[in-house]
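Here is one chain, start to finish.
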Amino acid sequence: MSEFSRLFDLRHLPAGAVELEASAQECAALAARFDLVRVDALTASLRFETEGSAVLAKGRLKAAIVQSCAVSGEDLPVAIDEPLALRFVPPGKTDGGDEIELDEAELDEIEMSPQGAFDLGEALAQSLALAIDPYAVGPSAEEARRKAGIVDQEASGPFAALAALKGKQP
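Its structure:
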């Protein structure tokens, strides 16, 4: 079961906008799942459209998270605001076989249950995971690199040595 489960049925889709919000417990579970310091908020506003036997969910995902800086480990608050375009398709409509080339419209296809149900909350949780920058760095990253003896690649690479030699020519 997903940490943020919101089940919908193809036969009973709401007509207007759908507003979803994770509870404090769901935010804590998502933070643990994605190895974040914490998730302060996760909300989404979406509208459903049907396209043949598929359901499109379009809208925005917003989240306030705190993750660790990839360099210093310090807490780094991050605001996420991403457009969403999810496509829920009946079973067997996605190609799970050989490697294929996907166009933009096929990238976010999610298979429904045989009864036409789908978990929009889990799709949002996965969208959140994709929006997180695993290499995010905070304002203290450069200082942490310097203290660890990690210098800028340009300042220490082969071209830096050549530049130093160039400066010594008569």
